[in-house]
Amino acid sequence: MALETKICQSCKANFPIEPDDFAFYEQMHVPPPTWCPQCRMTRRMAWFGYRILYKRDGMITFWHPDSGHEIYDQKKWHSDAWDPKSYGRDYDFSRSFFDQWRELFMAVPKPALQTQYSTMINSEYCNGASDCKNCYLCFKFDRAEECGYCNSCSYLKNCFDVSWSNHAELCYACVNLERCYQVFFSQDCSDCHDVWYSRDLVGCSNCYGCINLRNKNYCIFNEQYSKEEYEKKIKEFDSSKIEAFFLTQPRRQFHGYKNQDISGDYIYTSKNTKDSYMVRNSENLRYCQLLKAGDVHNAMDYTTFGLNAEWIYECGWVGIQVNNVKFSIWCYKSHDLEYCFGCMGSGNLFGCVGIRTGEYCILNKQYSKDEYIALVEKIKASMKEYGEMLPISLCPWPYNESNADEWFPLTKDQALAQGFAWRDEDVREYKPASTQVPDHIKAIDENILKEILKCDACGRNYQIIGKELQFLKRFNLPIPRHCPLCRDRARIKQLNPIEIYDRSCAKCKKDIQTSYAPERPEIVYCESCYQQEVM
Question: How far apart are CA 104 and CA 109, in angstroms?
């Protein structure tokens, strides 16, 4: 089919559907979308409410007490003590599919957290996590120990306030690290150790305030020193000069390596991956985001997770051996699902919630294979909305507690105007700080662990935990003045946005596409010019 231009039924902007897109929709047996890629992505992200935790019925959970959802502790939810199929119901052709799905969704109990609870040791304040030991307030996090306040990381040890990183140890306040040790206040670094206030370093050590270096040691603001000179100079280091120095150095048009035929940003070892963001080891994708785990093939409009995922469309947080999954949220080790939530180890489900090791179910009711196939086709034919993701009106999380707000912040009025829910915070719960925190860590003792602090940015209360204080003292770091949530959001803002702009290379002047907006002050080079100057 030829390229078509459609009008988004959400934001009313024009968007293209290209011949390859039509081929994918035909393969997946779905109609073309009626919302633009940006609105589709925001809608999916609104279905991830993982970051805000509550105490409820003696449990830590991400389900608000007023959500109306019954919750079970994870051991019970994953056990045979209850049967999700007992909530099954007949399909009523006189009613909307989504109205019936909503009733089922509200009725079926949910797990308090989305973790592999049997692999979590002393890490009860983490969510979207597995294989963690002694971790605190870590999210989308796995194979880690002795960490705090981290987000979207794997294989970390003794790290605090680190996001979007893998294989790091003793790192602090960093974003996008790979195989790093003792790296602080840095970004986009790999195979580095003993690095401070730097970005885009590879194979470097003992560097302060550096950018675009490869296999260097003992550098400050990219200037080479002897070991003796370096140790003397760092005592005089002025961190206030970092950003001004970075603006004098070129930036690469995109972050990534070992790619073929890609567009987007933060893409690594992938092929034919278009208009995507934060993707690894994948092939034949478009409009996909945050697939950090990688190993995804043949997918469109897919946000978060991965790990052996193939033929995925309009889904979020599905992964670990999933195939032919559409319009679903938080499903693992499953195949041939449509409009499902929280289904594990299952196949051939339509409109189900919480089914485990089940097959041929519709609205959680069991059918034979032949009955299932016939009824699903009849339901699809009767649905005016078939082919659209689960509506935001069914989403249990308000916009300001969802993953969407992390990447695309809105005001309350903006969110409500776009059809999202909103939850006002109860500012009365915030208390004044119980102590005045000294500027230097040497003036602080363990009594700080008993104190209540108040965030300088949002006013929320927070506390310092024991292993955090030990870490800060070990590396002579100050007590943070912002709460963990504000620090987490600030690290997301350090990443380039999920958006591509037209711009010219600052050196050769050729047209490029980049996630650096034209009005941003950075010097941006095309890949060829960057390779010539930096690599």
Answer: 10
pLDDT in tens, 59-87: 999 999 999 999 999 999 999 999 999 99
- CA–CA separation, 33 and 444 (whole Å): 57
The radius of gyration computed from the CA coordinates of the chain, to the nearest angstrom, equals 24
- CA distances to 83, 366, 426, 474, 528 from 77, rounded to whole Å, are 9, 20, 30, 41, 53
Assess whether 454 and 529 both reside in one domain.
no
Instruction: Give per-residue pLDDT as tens, 21-57.
Output: 999 999 999 999 999 999 999 999 999 999 999 999 9
Domain boundary among 230, 251, 272: 251
474 and 516 in a single domain? The answer is no
The last residue of a domain, from among 189, 217, 251: 251
Q: Which residues of the chain have pLDDT under 70?
A: 427-428, 535
In a domain, 259, yes or no: no
* pLDDT score of 426: 75
Q: What is the SS3 assignment for 236?
A: helix
Q: Is residue 369 part of a domain?
A: no
CB 131: neighbour CB atoms within 10 A?
19
Q: What is the pLDDT of residue 535?
A: 65
pLDDT tens-digit readout, 81-110: 999 999 999 999 999 999 999 999 999 999
Asked if residue 94 belongs to a domain, the reply is no
- Pairing state of beta strands 359-362 and 365-366? antiparallel
Check: CB of residue 144 under 8 Å from CB of residue 137: no
Do 512 and 453 share a structural domain? no
DSSP 416-478: HHTT-------GGG----SSPPPSSGGG--GGGGGPPEE-TTT--EE---HHHHHHHHHTT-P
- For the chain, the domain total comes to 3
Q: Can you give the residue range of the structural domain that contains 214?
A: 159-251
Does 481 share its domain with 436? yes
> At residue 498, what is the residue type?
I
Which 3 state secondary structure label does DSSP give 366?
strand
**172/240 same-domain check:** yes
Q: Is the pTM value of this prediction over 0.90?
A: yes
Which residue is associated with the tokens 């000179």?
Answer: 229
Indicate whether 164 belongs to any domain: yes
The number of residues making up the chain comes to 535
Q: Please report, as a single letter, which amino acid is at residue 77.
A: W
Closest CA to 419 of 400, 396, 392: 392
Looking at the structure, tell me whether residues 468 and 519 fall in a common domain: no
Q: Which amino acid makes up residue 411? A: T
* Same domain for 212 and 236: yes
